[in-house]
Amino acid sequence: MTFDRSVKIAPSILSADFANFGQEIQAVEAQGADWIHVDVMDGHFVPNITFGPATCKAIRPHVKTVMDVHLMIAPVDPYIEAFAEAGADILTAHLEAGPHIHRTLQAIRGAGCKAGLALNPGTGVEDIAYLLDMVDLVCVMTVNPGFGGQAFIDLSAKVRRLRQMIGDRPIHIEIDGGVTPATAPLMVAAGADVLVAGSAVFKGGSVANPAPYGENIAAIRAAVA
Length: 225
Ligand code: DX5
Ligand code: ZN
Known about the structure:
Largest sheet: 8 strands, parallel
Order of helices and strands: EHEHEHEHEEHEHEHH
Helix content: 25-40%
Distance between the termini: 23 Å
CATH superfamily: Aldolase class I
Structural class: alpha/beta
CATH topology: TIM Barrel
CATH architecture: Alpha-Beta Barrel
Number of helices: 8
Number of strands: 8
Radius of gyration: 16 Å
Strand order of the largest sheet: 1-8-7-6-5-4-3-2
Bound molecules: D-xylitol-5-phosphate, zinc ion
Number of domains: 1
Strand content: 15-25%
């Protein structure tokens, strides 16, 4: 993975057909996805359950781009090795998931993954000032994590401040939640370069009819161009 700040669209398979992840990933990559965003939920840190490392491992051979794994779990540390072995390129943990995020980020890089740090909508960016040299990505949640299809929370000022704090460091700013052609331009203008989108990418399409995936991705790209 080489670093650049061009805009990348990362469809979340939370909005894909759970019985058919392999083909869904192939379809959405063929239709222009830059990364594949994988939402892991534990029913404890967030009020919903998705899947764990075994599913990540099973889908890994289908991902030809970047496997971006968003851990909405607590605790994180006991599972880092398993997600690294499952083939995550990026492993993102939440600042709010425990008292020792510094240790968690060290362990993620130690396991050979890029380290991501996610922030709930209510968390301030000043809290991560001493973590910036340990991360490859900051994920700014623009919904409260747990479900796809929620309404976007405009955190433009937070993203702008984060972009200033990052300066020249090679750190991606990822936006997750409620990204559409209407909301994406606000976030890119504020400094984001990775746009996660679940419902806005998968709506109207299927493995049998993947063209809408491409149209949906193109609509987001056109909006931010
Ligand atoms: C929310 C997840 C998101 C979600 C985004 O907890 O982390 O990745 O799938 O879905 P949309 O784009 O539908 O808001
Ligand atoms: Zn996510």
